[in-house]
Amino acid sequence: IIEKNADPEQMLLAYLRKRLCLTGTKYGCGGGGCGACTVMISTYEPTSKKIRHYSANACLLPICSLYGTAVTTVEGVGSTKTRIHPVQERLAKCHGSQCGFCTPGMVMSIYTLLRNHPEPTSEQMLAALAGNLCRCTGYRPILDACKTFCKESVCGQRKTNGKCCLDQEDDLFENEEKVPTSLFSADEFQPLDPTQELIFPPELMRMAENQPKRTLFFRGERVTWISPISLDELLDLKAAHPKAPLVVGNTGVGPDMKFRGMFHPVLIAPARIPDLNVLKYTNDGLTLGAACSLSLVKDILTNAIAEFPEEKTRVFCALLQQLRTLGGEQIRNVASFGGNIISRKSTSDLNPVLAASNCMLNLASRGQRRQILLSDIFADGIGNNTITPEEILVSIHIPYSRKGEYVSAFRQAARRENALPITNAGMRVLFEEGTDVIKDLSIFYGGAVATTVCAKQTCWTLTGRHWNEQMLDEACRLVLKEIALPGSAGDENVDYKKTLMVSFFYRFFLEVSQSLKTMDPCHYPGIPMEYGSVLQDFKTRMPQSIQIYQAKPNQSPQDPVGRPIMHQSGIKHATGEAVYIDDLPSVDGELFLAAVTSSRAHAKIVSIDTSEALKEAGVFDVITAHDVPAANEFHFSDDPEIIFARNEVICVGQIVCAVVADSDVHAKQAAAKVKIEYEMLEPVILTIEEAIKHNSFFEPKRKLEQGNVDKAFETVDNIVEGDICIGGQKHFYMETQSMLAVPKGEDKEMDLYVSTQHPAIIQVM
Question: Which phi and psi (to 5°) does residue 428 adopt?
């Protein structure tokens, strides 16, 4: 494809869906979190003659970053019009789709893994799917399909009779009719033949080998994209545009621009510069280019750990532990090592351990080169700007660990993988030679406050102490005293973070104590045996669950009840051919509507200023309550629902008005320009306790009762009383919430295409 008008603000996902009409790649979260938009990117390196395949989120990939690459979507893998691929077939026949919206992304993650590893291990398969979410299936049938490609048995244990632990029908249905438990027949599957896969386009290969590298310029409607090829050119660009961010994987700048209102008129893409992709072993450590992807760093560290003695690789091991759970595979494949550092975000899992390990940053600006310790950036605890706007992070030097030096990294998140940390930490201790006396100690925490923070006073105080329980008690007390967390006393979130901070150091204490015992069992007691499980890392394993069904021996072949019949749309889910609302072809004269919602929980609307929004490109109108005929409400239950807020808003997110424009991008940009003035009203009800106080309840009140409750309480032996607080849970719908309205031009009728599971209610409303 030759695109002469590449817009730096256009992501690959929008280009595929709107420009090329390839709608198999789905728009889910739009921020790289769900995997519904996964595609395979292939690149060719002319020097090594190697082709690299990797999965990526199309929603975060600017099309300008894909010059010279090959993109494979689910349509390119297989279709019902040509032939379906074994991945697509097995996902469908193993019942791996229900609503099917996540299925194309699942297909692409598995397909990419198989292109690199035709017989993957179960660990590789789980890692490949860690960045893909499914709301329907519970993952078991998806993993059933994956297991058919794995080279080793996924059976956890065999029973004494030698049968697989999953062959449990005899135990499950004693004295009942024989029940088959096989949900699919693997004999029906077509074999995977790696020789039949798509080749890398020869034209792109020739282009990479024959065309000299040149600086790329792409100018869009609002943004200019510049991709230099040398470090000197990059330094000149940064001097000319000091506020321009460097974009490699777009996993940081992209979401900031898309969701947080950030705008950058110039974007600089340095990924093609050799100096920023360096890999160099030195006498005292390993130097890695700032543009290296996190996946590449992970592979390099894995190889180094296998090659060097354990004593030298403790920093590498701690880093690798964090990299395994940092984002999904799609994010790690494009996110850069340097970007994770330079963002200085509190949620970085790498910065605490890199800072604690005395890693060095190699910086460059026009006419100057210098080195600083990464820990210097966080020296004052508020992300000190020791890097000037004109400076570039060229590479990172990771030192080898020394004799008597121990390094660990920790994190706690809402889920183990693909989730931002609540709190993380990096810790390092160096002992006086042959002793347990602390010579040097570093403790860094992330997630606790606005940026990575060092417990500097604690480390100074503990230097010279013996590594024992007295030191542990004092360390926990000092850490909590030194690092002040924002929030009020008694705040559950603050208390939880404090507990995590102390727990991380306790775990570090146990790890180091056990290592000292291993080094010299005569002098160091180690830890009690009952604490041993604390040091065992949690490992994600292939789930070993089964689904069973009952079928009568004399059941008619035409009777589907109770039988594991493949989803009628399963194949089309897996090929991306199933059509959802957002996949429908554009209608002539189609306009897009973007809602402007309330940012206040309870307030009076003083004014709505739409003047700036109406000046935006492509905007047709701004609709408010005054433009809605009749009652401006609809009835879903007994109480009416307001369409557009009039005079007052009663919750955050209530629709106040809507912008109509010629594209969804223009509509959203203009919606951000609408200015609403509020006057706060009381009461503001944000918690259940406040709702109880103000007697604010949804009617009718619901309760679960069975039998005579009062009598039951009078006769029971024991009554347990207490309070339990349950937080909210987002449903995380995968399919884009969208609707297409097509006026028919007769009797004010229109056709509505709605992404809903309840079309009857939509008709009523």
Answer: -145, 140
Based on the domain organization, do 451 and 303 belong to the same domain? yes
What pLDDT band is residue 213 in, cutting at 50, 70 and 90? confident
161 part of a folded domain: yes
Task: Let me know the angle formed at the C-alpha of 313 by 310 and 316, rounded to the nearest 5 degrees.
Answer: 140
Residue 488 confidence (pLDDT): 60
CATH number at residue 229: 3.30.43.10
pLDDT tens digits, residue range 150-177? 987 554 444 444 455 445 544 544 544 5
- 367 and 236 share one domain: no
748 in any annotated domain: no
Please indicate, yes or no, whether residues 352 and 493 belong to a single structural domain of this protein.
yes
Which residue did the predictor score with more confidence, 300 or 493?
Answer: 300
Structure tokens at 448: 């606790």
Q: Is the pTM of this model over 0.85?
A: yes
**In which residue are the tokens 């728009």 written?**
27
Other Cβ atoms within 10 Å of 499 Cβ, number: 13
CA angle, 530 then 531 then 537, to 5°: 125
Report how many domains make up the chain: 4
Q: What is the pLDDT of residues 523-533, one digit of tens each?
A: 887 788 888 88
Share of the chain above pLDDT 90, in %: 65
**Chain position carrying tokens 């135990």:** 171
Asked whether residue 401 carries a pLDDT value surpassing 90, the answer given is yes
CATH value at residue 614: 3.90.1170.50
Q: Residues 710, 714, 716, 717: is their CA dihedral positive or negative?
A: positive
Neighbouring residues of 100: CB distance < 8 A, sequence distance ≥ 6: 567, 569, 570, 572, 573, 574, 578
Residue 100: name the closest of 689, 575, 467 by CA: 575
Which CATH number do you get for residue 106?
1.10.150.120
Contacts of 25 (CB under 8 A, 6+ apart): 13, 16, 17, 36, 37, 38, 39, 58, 73, 74, 104, 105, 576
Count the helices and strands in the chain (H runs, E runs): 25, 25
Q: Considering the domain boundaries, does residue 79 fall inside one?
A: yes
Both 171 and 61 in one domain: the answer is: yes
- 98 and 24, same structural domain? yes
241 and 384, same domain (yes or no): no
Count Cβ atoms below 10 Å from residue 131 Cβ, excluding itself.
Answer: 25
Give me the amino acid identity at 660: V
**pLDDT tens by residue, 65-102:** 999 999 999 999 999 999 999 999 999 999 999 999 99
CATH code, 304: 3.30.465.10
CA distance 348 to 357: 15
The set of residues, in sequence order, having a beta carbon less than 8 Å from that of 660 and lying 6+ positions away, is: 591, 592, 593, 619, 620, 621, 622, 623, 667
Output the DSSP codes for 337-397: HHHHHHT--TT-SSHHHHHHTT-EEEEEETTEEEEEEHHHHTTTSS----S-TT-EEEEEE
pLDDT in tens, 649-698: 999 999 999 999 999 989 999 999 999 999 999 999 988 889 999 999 88
Q: Summarize pLDDT for 561-614 with one digit per residue, the tens.
A: 888 889 999 999 999 999 999 999 988 889 999 999 999 999 999 999 999 999
Residue-range definition of the domain harbouring residue 382? 274-504
For the chain, the average pLDDT equals 89
Structure tokens at 204: 């792109």
Domain co-membership, 70 together with 180: yes
Per-residue confidence at 381, pLDDT binned at 50, 70, 90? low
Starting at the edge strand found earlier in the chain, the sheet holding 592-597 runs 592-597, 655-661, 619-623
Structure tokens at 410: 């920790």
Half-sphere exposure in the Cβ direction for 480 (13 Å, CA)? 15
**Domain final residue pick, 475, 504, 533:** 504
Among 440-444, 625-629, 659-663, the range scoring the smallest mean pLDDT is 625-629
Same structural domain for residues 380 and 496? yes
Instruction: Flag whether 608 is in a domain.
Output: yes
Q: Which of 656, 680, 700 is the last residue of a domain?
A: 700
